[in-house]
Amino acid sequence: MHRRLHGRAALFDVDPAGLAPRLVGLRPHQHRGHPFEHPGELPFVVLTGARGLGKSAVLTELRDAYKGHTPVALVDCDEEQFAGPPEGRPAESWSPVAQALLVIAEQLAEPVTGAGRITFPRLMSGLVAVAAGGWGDADSERIRREVERILLLNESGSWISGFAGRWAGKVAAKVVAAATGTGPLVSGAIEATLESVAEGFTSRRHHKASVWYRTYPNAGGHAQRGLILLSGHFRAGGTSRDHAERYLVRALLADLTEAYTGVLPRMQRLGRPLVLLDNTQSSPGPGLVEAVLRDRAEGVADQVAFIAARRGEGREELRNAVRRELPEVARRSDWTPDAAPSSRALLVALPALSPDDTLHIIGAVCEDTPVPPQLPHATHRLTAGNPLGIVLLAESAAQNLPESASLGELLTADVRPAEDQPAVPAYRALLDRLVPAEHLDELTVLAAAHDHDSACALAAALLPDTFGPADVRALQMRLAGEGLATVPGQFVGDPFVRTLLLLRLHLRDADHASWRTAHETLIAHYPDPEHARYRLHHELALGITESAVAHLRDTFPTLGTGTWLRTLRFVASAPYFHAHDDEGRDFGGRSDRRTAVALGHTDAGRQPPDGVDAVLHLRIQRLLQAVWQLTDPLALPDATVGQRLRFELEQLSNLRPAGNALLWRASRDWPAAALAGRPLEDPEDADDDPDDHSGEA
Questions:
Q1: CB-based contacts of 418: which residues, under 8 Å, 6+ apart?
Q2: Is the dihedral of CA 179, 183, 187, 190 positive or negative?
Q3: How many Å is the Cα radius of gyration of the chain?
Q4: Pairing mode, if any, of strands 274-278 and 305-311?
Q5: For residues 504 and 448, what is the distance between their CA atoms, to the nearest angstrom?
C-alpha cells in the first residue's frame, strides 16, 4: 500500500486486489490490467464517515494512483466554484451540476498511457444549449469565453486548441448574429453549435453525437428541437431542471461509453474511467449521484467507476444502499442490487486507525525528534484513531517538542499545517476541519452539556436569545447527520471533538469566565441526589474536589460496587485544562497537582473532616485524583500514579468482601489500560456483582 495512507489497504492492495483495482480494472500506480469483480453493472461506491476520517485523502490517493493510466476526474462538491454562478452569468443558465459536469469532462479529457484525448461532443452540445439561455444581453466576448471553455474542455497548449479556438470563435459569431437578428436567441445558438459540430468533425462517431439529442423526450427525432427543449427545461428550474441535468449526466456517460467502443479503443484503453466525488452531501453531489443511480436502475448502462465520499451515513438519501465496513470489502464486495435506484450504491464506512497506525504515523512525521514513549498511545486514546487528529498532533510534536510536553500543550501550541499556511494553535486547526464552521461558537458552549435539557440551560446562560430549544435540537440532528457518534449522556458524542470544543471554551476568555459560567450553570441544573454524579463532575472541572470525595466515601459501603466504580470513573472524567491551587483557583504554573495528591504527598496538609473515617477519606481522595490524572486525554499517563491506583483499589477490595472481585479486577485492568492508552472499562464480571442493586449507569 502507498506509504501516505494507513489502515486503508482494503482499498489499495494489489495482491490480493483491494476494492479499487477490482472496480477500475487496473493496479494502482501501474498500467497493468486486473480482472473486474463486476464485469457488468458495477456499484456506485460511497465512502462514509464523520469529518477527519480521511475520505478526502483516500480520493486524492486514488486520483494519484490512476492519473495518466486511465481517465480520472476528482471534484470536491464543497468548492467555491459550485456555490453560485460566475459574475455576469444569470442563475437560470447555470447550476452546480452543470458546472461539475464541465469540470469532470475537462479532467477526463486528459490523454493517458496508450490512448489519446477523449472528446465530449454530446455533453458539449448540451452545455452550450444550457449556457445559451443566459446570453440574451451578453456581449460577444463573454459568449466567446463561455463557448470556448465548453468546446475546448480546457485543452490549452495542445494541437487541438487552435482548431477549437477558431471553432469557438465561429460559434460565438453565429450566436451574436442570432442575438442581433429577428430569430430566437436560443435556437440560433443551438443551430450554430450543431452546424459547427458538423463542420468541425466529419467522423461517423461525432456525427452520431451531433444527432444524439433526437431522442430527447418530445424532440420528434430532431436534435435541434431536443436541445431547445433541454435548454427550456433547465431555465424553468425545479423538477424540470432536474430532468435536464439528468440528461446532461447521461450525455457525459454516453461520450465516455463511445470512447471505449470499437476494437481499437478497447485495445488501447485499459481499465475503466474513474470519477471521484468528494463531499457529495453538498450540491452538486446529490444531483450527480441520483442521476447515475436512476439511469442504472432503468437499464441505461455505463462502465464508469464512481467512488464518492460523504459525511454521515446517508440513511435518508440512500436508504436501500448495500452497507459494508471497509474490512468486509477487502477481497469481495458481495454487492447485489435490487429494483430501488439507491440499491445501486455500495456504502463503505471508513474505520478509525489502529494504535499501530498511530505509532507509525507519529514515527514517520517526527523522524529524528525524540518522542516520549507514551505519546503514540496517548495520542490514539485522545483521537480515538481519527486520522486528521493523529497527523496534526504528530506535526505539532515534530514542531514543538520538547518545549511542549503534554498533549494539552501540543494542542495549544502553534502548528504550521503546510509551508504556505500561517501557524495557528493545533486545536483551532483541528476544529476548523472537524465541526461545521457556522456552528463553532454554539458547539463550544454546548459541548459541556449531557442532553437536550442541559444544553438548553447552557444556551440560555451563554448564547444569544435567538438560539433557543429548537436550535439546540436542530444542531443535535446536524451532528448525527454528519456521522458524529451519538452517546447517551453527552451532547457531543465524539470524545475527541468534545475535548477540543471544551478546550476552546476554557480559552475563550483570559479569566476563564465562560468556562466557570458553563460549569456553574450545570451544577445548578443537577440539584437532585439521583443526578449527583453530573453535579460532582462539573464541580471537579472547576477544581472543587471535596464534594466528590465525600460522595464516593459515603456511598462506598452502600452503593453496588459496579455502580460505585462507574460513578468514580464518570466523575473523574471531568476536563482538566489547567492547574489549581489548594483553594481550587486557577494559577499559571505548568505542574499537574493531581499527581502529588494521588501519590499522597499532600495528605498531611489535607485533614479529613471531623467524624469520618480518616483512612478511607484519604484513600478515596488519592484514588479520585489518580483516576482523574490517568484518564485525562490531554495528559501522558504517569506510571507511578498507575501503581498507586492499583494499590488503592486493592486496599478498597479488602474493605468490601461482597465486591472484592470487582475491585480487585479493576486494580489490575484500569492501570494497565490507562498506561496503554486505552479507556477504562467495567471489570469483566460487573454483571455478576451480587452487591450491585442500583440501576444507575
A1: none
A2: negative
A3: 31
A4: parallel
A5: 11
Distance, in Å, from the CA atom of 49 to the CA atom of 47, rounded to the nearest integer, reads 7
Q: Tell me, what's the pLDDT at 592?
A: 78
Q: CB atoms < 10 A from the CB of 110, how many?
A: 16
Q: pLDDT tens digit string along 298-348?
A: 999 999 999 999 999 988 899 999 999 999 999 999 999 999 999 999 999
Window from 184-198, 483-497, 657-671 with minimum mean pLDDT = 184-198
Q: pLDDT tens-digit profile of 36-62?
A: 999 989 999 999 999 999 999 999 999
Beta bridge partners of 505: none
Q: From the CB of residue 60, how many other CB atoms can be counted at a distance below 10 Å? A: 17
Residue 329, burial from CB neighbour count under 10 angstroms (0-12, 13-18, 19+):
buried
CB 670 within 8 A of CB 627: yes
| Pairing, β 345-349 against β 44-49 | parallel
Return the residue matching grid coordinates 498511530: 358
| pLDDT tens-digit map of 639-653 | 999 999 999 999 999
**Contact of 410 with 396, CB cutoff 8 Å:** yes
Predicted pLDDT at 156? 37
Map grid coordinates 442570432 to a residue.
178
CA distances for 116 relative to 200, 251, 263, 276, 660, angstroms: 18, 20, 15, 21, 76
Longest dimension (CA), the chain: 103
- What is the signed CA dihedral for 77, 81, 84, 87, rounded to 10 degrees? -170
Taking the CA atoms of 221, 227, 229 and 233 in sequence, report the sign of the dihedral they define: positive
Count of residues in the chain: 697
Looking at residue 9, its pLDDT comes to 92
Tell me the Ramachandran region of residue 489: left when phi exceeds 0, alpha when psi lies from -120 to 50, beta otherwise.
left
- The Cα–Cα gap between 75 and 660 comes to 60
Other Cβ atoms closer than 10 A to 400 = 18
Residue 697 grid coordinates: 449507569
Residue 560, classified by CB atoms within 10 Å of its CB into exposed (0-12), middle (13-18) or buried (19+), is buried
pLDDT at 82 over 90: yes
Kindly give, in sequence order, each residue whose CB lies less than 8 Å from that of residue 183, ignoring residues fewer than 6 positions away.
Answer: none
Q: How far apart, in whole angstroms, are the C-alpha atoms of residue 382 and residue 379? A: 5
Q: Which residue has the higher pLDDT, 475 or 204?
A: 475
| Sign of the Cα pseudo-torsion (679, 505, 439, 99, in order) | negative
Cell 445501486 -> residue:
344
pLDDT, position 5: 84
Q: Is the pLDDT of residue 587 over 70?
A: no
Grid-cell match 462538491, residue found: 77
| Grid cell of 547 as nine digits | 464534594
Q: How many helices (H) and strands (E) does the chain have?
A: 30, 10
> Ramachandran region of residue 114, left (φ > 0), alpha (ψ -120 to 50) or beta?
left
Report strand pairing: 586-587 vs 579-580: antiparallel
Which three cell numbers mark 655? 474493605
Share of the chain above pLDDT 70, in %: 86
C-alpha cell at 295: 439511469
* C-alpha span between 626 and 599 (Å, rounded): 8
Beta carbons within 8 Å of 652's beta carbon, 6+ residues apart: 556, 619, 623, 663
DSSP, residue by residue, 234-295: HHH-HHHHHHHHHHHHHHHHHHHHHHT-SHHHHHH--S--EEEEE-TTSTTHHHHHHHHHHH
Is the pLDDT confidence value at 600 over 60? yes
Take residue 531 and report the three cell numbers written for it: 443526578
